[in-house]
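## Example pair
The file below holds two records. Each record gives the amino-acid sequence first, followed by its structure token line.
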Amino acid sequence: MTATFFTFLLGIATSIIGSIIIMGIQAYHKKKEEKRLEAKCNVAGNYLTYFDDEIEGVYVESKARAILNQKGKTISGESKVLYRDSTRTWILTGEIIDDRFIRGVFHSDDKTANDIGSFFFEINKDELTGGWMGFDSDKKEVVKGKYLMKKMKGTRKITDYTEHDYPNIHTIAEQRLGSHYLDSLFESLKTGDNSVFCKVAIIDEEVVGFGIGIVKEVANLVDELAVTGTHKTQLLERLKTIKTIGFLKAVAVSENHEKQGIASALTEAVILEFQNRDIRNLMSFSWKRSSGPTSIGILKNHGFKELCTIPDFWTEDSIRHGYDCPECGVPCHCTAIVFHKALRT
């Protein structure tokens, strides 16, 4: 009886010990697999994301910042849209499949909204490329679009212009906007003209972009921009209740640093400077080229509304100042789309 009972206890102990060993081996292999996946498919980090969106009936490329966390094949994180008027944050959950793809779902952090959807990415080194599909509770319909996530690298800051920045921003301006386009404004910056200011984007001590703003009385600004004829009358009529306006003249980013959210950050910095100067109405132009307007998405994302279009806007100015348009050469025949934004008081 005693021997039988002892054998019974020994069997139970052996089973428990065996189970513990098996669980330990399974946990070891699970941890090993997690480490393998995290090394091979390291997707954790900070990202800038680009996705197809619709704003006021116009399809644009919107931007957001995202943070992804990873434990083995399990992915979690959140994404926040990068424009001032939006407070929406999206919660992301997903998993890695076949060591190459990520599939998952997203939903709004707003518990009163029913916006939900799914996403699918292919893992390409420091980029995740794919698409999304979801239910838009405002439109009451299913929407979809492309989705790109680019991992952020380096330390970025937006700062005020100094004379040491001039060679770099001048080079970027010549390459991205055309020869001599901003020469007069650069002279104003050099002389300390307080009506002109410049914000500079720097990554790891390298100047990679800039944004220029001008504060003027509406009539003087329209004259300086060489708006003439019926277009001048139309523009002054639309802005007749405004005396002083902030003009977002240009935002440019070096070609090697495109699609990293820098232009959006510069635009926001210029808008904030206008706010700090107590300027409540802003204006900006977008060039309408054969490849499409160059900044329409950014302007709309930051709350600018379209006022009017002006054909051949830069023609006379390009001849007078020798401005070499990167699209047309000399003279420039680009159409300008005029945008306005009223800042909140």
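Second record, same layout:
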Amino acid sequence: MRDEKVIFAIAGAGPAEALPLDDGLGARLLQRFEASKGRMVVHSGRCAISDSGELSGVDVIIAHRLLESAADDALVVTEAAQQELRLPLEHFSKSEETFDGIGSVTTYVYAPFVETLRCEIKREYAEVATNPAKGFHFHTGRKLAAMLGYTDEMLDGIPESSIERLAGTGNPFALGPLHAGETVVEFGCGAGMDTLIASRMVGPAGRVVSIDMTPEMLDAARAAASEVGATNIDFHLGYIEKIPLPDASADVIISNGVINLAPDKKRVFREMRRVLKDDGRLQIGDIVVQKAVPEGAKRNIDLWAG
């Protein structure tokens, strides 16, 4: 048994495998990942190496935990490994995982299916934002708001530009009102209809933090907030898998038809738990599938975006 610093990979259910570090390692890892169509973690750290080549130690445990939390087709490269590999990162998203007893681990994640899926979903909702009267395979606008139980009182004073771009699946306020002074996090603000309702409910002493991945929708939401003079809203371009807030900072999370579009729902719900206060609550309107979805259907982009 010897102790060395090595760069190693874990793929699928296989063991940690030490890798020879040379100029072509990064390219070979990318080729191997593309061929495998499965999840892989690449890490660098000190390991105990048995005479048979088996790796063990804290860094191997870290890599296994990263593998458990990774999306099904993700390549996860830790900061420690990236310092050795120097991979081009234009197609990677930077992330951070926190583990009890270990702390935070910075990673770079490459998930081709996820990125393709996000692009298609953004394209669809950008069309809703820029051409709301076009007509879609899903309901939109004021008609949808009535179907979901939004009252005239709730919509009073909300710009028509926000209402006509509504493309949700429920009414988070049907689960109860928000309260003055609360901090609200909104997963997917769209054109801002729910955002402005929440802003009004929490009042000037409260705060609404709204995240959306579609720039065109965010532009519409910001314009609507400016139109009504709402100053207690923070808009962020980003993904609901990575919320720009500290732990235990939200009184309530609202969302309307967005979580079903997230490919990594486990990560979304971990983020919910992280940012919610211990006595916080969820008010979510969404779609729930009551039977298992076939693996082939999960990877059908048209079913996600359409």
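Notes on the second record: The mean pLDDT is 91. Residues 211 and 236 are 5 Å apart (CA to CA).
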